[in-house]
Amino acid sequence: MKRLKYILFILLIACFSCDDFLDVKPTGEIVNNKLFETAEGFEEAIYGVYSFLAREPLYGKNMTYGLVDVVGQYFSGRWDKHWSNELRLYNYKHMEVRPEIDTIWISMYRGISYVNNMLENLAERDPSEFALYNVYKAEGLGLRAFMHFELLRLFSESIIQNPNATGIPYREKYSYQVTPFDPISESYNKIIRDFKEAERLLAEHGEYFDRTDENAGGFVKDRVIHMNLYAVQALLARVYWEKGDLETAKNYAMKVIEAPYFSMEAKTDVEDIMNGVISDKETIWGLYSEEFPNFTRDVLYSSGGNLSYDPKPDYRDIYEIDQDGFDYRLDKWFQTLSDHGAEGLRCMKVVDRFKVRLNTRPVTKLSGINMIRLPELYYIVAEYYLLQSDMETAATYLDKVVRARGLNGFNKGDGMVVVTRMNINNDRRKELVCEGQWFQILKHYNMSIYEAITDQTFQPSKDIYVFPVPDSEYEYRD
Q1: In 289-378, where do the E strands start and end?
Q2: Which of 460, 476, 474 is nearest to 166 (CA)?
Q3: Which positions ≥6 away from 389 have C-beta within 8 Å?
Q4: Are 464 and 446 in contact (CB under 8 A)?
Q5: Which of 168, 359, 371, 392 has its CA 20 to 30 A from that of 190?
Q6: How far is residue 237 from each of residues 203, 273, 372, 382, measured CA to CA in Å?
Q7: SusD-like N-terminal domain spans which residues (predicted)?
Q8: Which value, to the nearest 10 degrees, does the dihedral of the CA atoms of residues 23, 28, 32, 33 take?
Q9: 81 SS3 class
Q10: pTM
Q11: Is the pLDDT confidence value at 458 over 90?
């Protein structure tokens, strides 16, 4: 209880104190210099960025179970005229779809501007002034790299499919000056540079990560809701995997897997892994949010309204592939309901069952959004060993996930191990619903996409896999 009260207090301070910080004025001047006179001010600014990311335009909805999972073909709008029904058909230029996509670009760059504001003010201070100077800088650099990477994945081609593609503007200054679009290879170089500097600073400072120590206080408490060292390493694994450097991706994944702070949840706890809360075992980085359950209530739990998303009609087929055992994900994450405004089949994976029914939940876990979890790293390592033709080791790492979800696994102990990349991707699709990752995996492998409602298959192309950059981005360019 003390831990949660502390978090609530800090984040309430962050929300109220950062209003001026988050209000970027059109003239582009530095906002609220007084905020950056103390260590507490820098901390409030960083908390403000996390709070901003947790809102609906980004990870509160669109970048998790919302827009990105609609194009990943998990969900569709209940009403025929719901704009998501145009989105699932990849009509990105539809009059109601385009503003939703534009909002992701605009919001993410706004978040980047907040980070750059903090970093520029921090650079003006003597590092000896603040005991956590390097931590503030590292979190800022990690957040900047993360936001640029998320934009790159959606608004640029896959570097594997087109190494000469155009990347995105990498904005490193708090300024409204036009930033050129980099080649995609340079975009990756800058993202990796910032992540690696964040990793160096956090390792040098001595990362503190303990989920249970009640004696930890201040900014170092509950590091799972910060861009911590393991989050940076896990995200570097994701970046290198996306880039096609599977060996380096595996090496970074193993740094996190071998850390003593993470493990798979028990299969009987699947229902309560991330239903509005941050997993006690699997989450490497999450965003604290008390509002997240309200967002998911409207979209995933409540039914009949024009905000409601329904699971696609082929949802069971996803979980019945490679079925050998009882998959708790299908049983616990998809339920047919008839209570409190929820009628019919609902995806309950990230819905806080306590809050939607009782408006409260027992104080046992941090409320929020899981940004990157342990299973993703096991898939990367399994894929690496598969490409080394080491099926037994590949199965060992894949089985870490599938057995934790109730299935029997691929290594039966009989010396006849058969595992394929399709097996790995099938489990990725099962596991990552509501996390905004499956569309990126489809794009990574340049796969065709099946749409169940209209029974049509979309062939891979730029029109499918590259979101349009907002027209406003080109207004002041030559």
Answers
A1: 309-311, 334-339, 342-347, 368-373
A2: 474
A3: none
A4: no
A5: 371
A6: 17, 23, 11, 13
A7: 20-207
A8: 160
A9: coil
A10: 0.92
A11: yes
Q: Round the CA-based radius of gyration of the chain to a whole number and report it.
A: 22
Q: Which residue has the tokens 């207004």?
A: 475
* 3-state secondary structure at position 376: helix
Closest CA to 370 of 443, 466, 265, 215: 265
Two structure tokens written together for 267: 């299969």
| Contact criterion met (CB below 8 Å) for 199 and 240 | no
> For the stretch 206-237, what's the b/e string if a residue is b when 16 or more beta carbons lie within 10 angstroms of its beta carbon?
ebebebeeeebeebbbbbbbbbbbbbbbbbbb
300-349 residue pLDDT tens: 998 766 778 999 999 999 999 988 899 999 999 999 988 767 788 999 99
Quote the Cα angle for 95-96-102, to 5°: 90
User: What is the Cα–Cα distance from 196 to 145, expressed in whole angstroms?
Assistant: 10
Q: CB count, 10 Å around CB of 365?
A: 19
Bridging pattern class, strands 342-347 and 75-77: unpaired
* CA distances for 139 relative to 7, 54, 233, 279, 368, angstroms: 18, 16, 13, 21, 19
pLDDT digits (tens, 9 = 90+) for 51-103: 999 999 999 999 999 999 999 999 988 777 788 899 999 999 999 999 999 99
Residue type, 441: I
Q: pLDDT at position 21, please?
A: 40
| Dist CA 85 CA 54 (whole Å) | 25
Domains of the chain: 2-472 (1.25.40.390)
Distance, in Å, from the CA atom of 350 to the CA atom of 244, rounded to the nearest integer, reads 30
pLDDT recorded at residue 165: 98
**CA 35 → CA 14, 118, 119, 309, distances in Å?**
11, 10, 13, 41
What the block records as the tokens of 357 is: 């029914």
Q: DSSP character for 218?
A: G
pLDDT at 46: 96
Length of the chain: 478
Residues 381-416: b if buried by 16+ CB within 10 A, e if exposed? bbbbbbeeeebebbbbbbbbbbbbbbbebbbeeeee
Query: Of 460, 448, 377, 444, which Cα lies nearest the Cα of 243?
Result: 444
CA 49, CA 102: separation in Å to the nearest integer? 20
Q: Yes or no: say if 410 and 423 are a contact pair by the CB < 8 Å rule.
A: yes
**What is the residue type of 297?**
R
Distances in whole angstroms, Cα of residue 342 to Cα of each of 276, 324, 348, 355, 362: 17, 31, 11, 13, 22
> What interhelical angle do 133-155 and 39-53 show, nearest 10?
20
Q: How far apart are CA 370 and CA 280, in angstroms?
A: 11
Instruction: Look at 307 and 391; give whichever has higher pLDDT.
Output: 391
